[in-house]
């Protein structure tokens, strides 16, 4: 049988990052003290916390037990996704790791957060007093952070990645380690969500750190099998990128 898509697609949100902890689920830093831990660190260099490394290793054990060896593993190239993938792959013996090709892919990076990336809540409200009303009007999928990307913009990148995945990796087992916002874009495309669906939080909530979402080949396309399964028992998940 000829497949026009992967046989298995496993999406994993990265493990707990230092920025997750510093921002505690907020859009901005609460104050300057919270910001100082990571001030000046660009998004692609933010690393995992010690608990995040443990989450990745525990998740790898669950993924190997359930899915076995993958043909390809993709990350966004950001430190936190590369470190998560490394932790997951520690669960595999060297001979199995050697069979899996690991590659970073720019198209599946997180949204560009824009000019307010390092701002506190007070600073962002002073700099962009109109932003909250704009966000309420357009919603979290269409609205763009000042100088950044909307999730709709990110969806265009993910669409390109999926087209290449379907073209080049038909019938294969694929794991993708990415980000919370990007994962929502994957779901929008793979599950055929409407705009109203994607504006809301997904059923079951935002993906946990190292939450695992699975799609399998149903003959005529990929079908959601499982959303946001968690295999780790250490630390705590914090919403955010």
Tell me briefly what this model is.
The chain is α/β, with parallel strands linked by helices and 241 residues long. It has 10 helices and 6 strands.
Please, could you describe this protein's structure?
- The protein is α/β, with parallel strands linked by helices and 241 residues long.
- It contains ten helices and six strands.
- The relative contact order is 0.23.
What is the overall pLDDT average?
94
Q: Classify the secondary structure makeup into a structural class.
A: alpha/beta
Instruction: Write out the strand line-up for the largest beta sheet, numbering strands in chain order.
Output: 3-2-4-1-5-6
Note the main sheet.
6 strands, mixed
Contiguous helical run count = 10
Secondary structure elements and their pairing?
Blueprint: E1 8-13, H1 18-23, H2 32-36, H3 50-67, E2 72-75, H4 79-89, H5 94-97, E3 101-104, H6 121-127, H7 131-142, H8 151-168, E4 173-178, H9 180-190, H10 195-199, E5 212-217, E6 222-229
Parallel strand pairs: 1-4, 2-3, 2-4
Antiparallel strand pairs: 1-5, 5-6
């Amino acid at each position: 049988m000829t497949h026009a898509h992967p046989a298995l697609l496993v999406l994993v949100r990265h493990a707990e990052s230092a920025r997750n902890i510093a921002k505690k689920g907020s859009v901005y830093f609460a104050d300057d003290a919270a910001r100082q831990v990571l001030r000046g660190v660009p998004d692609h260099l933010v690393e995992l916390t010690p608990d995040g490394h443990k989450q990745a290793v525990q998740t790898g054990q669950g993924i190997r037990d359930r899915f076995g060896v993958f043909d390809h593993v993709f990350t966004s190239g950001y430190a936190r996704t590369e470190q998560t993938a490394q932790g997951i792959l520690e669960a595999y013996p060297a001979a199995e790791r050697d069979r899996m090709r690991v590659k970073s892919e720019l198209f599946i990076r997180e949204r560009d957060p824009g000019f307010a990336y390092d701002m506190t809540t007070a600073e962002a409200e002073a700099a962009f007093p109109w932003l909250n009303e704009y966000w309420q009007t357009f919603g979290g999928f269409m609205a763009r952070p000042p100088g950044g990307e909307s999730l709709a913009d990110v969806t265009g990148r993910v669409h390109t990645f999926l087209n290449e995945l379907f073209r080049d990796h038909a019938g294969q087992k694929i794991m993708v380690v990415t980000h919370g916002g990007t994962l929502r874009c994957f779901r929008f495309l793979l599950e055929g969500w409407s705009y109203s669906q994607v504006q809301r939080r997904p059923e079951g909530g935002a993906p946990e750190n190292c939450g695992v979402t699975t799609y399998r080949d149903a003959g005529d396309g990929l079908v959601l099998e499982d959303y946001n399964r968690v295999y780790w028992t250490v630390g705590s998940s914090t919403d955010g990128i």
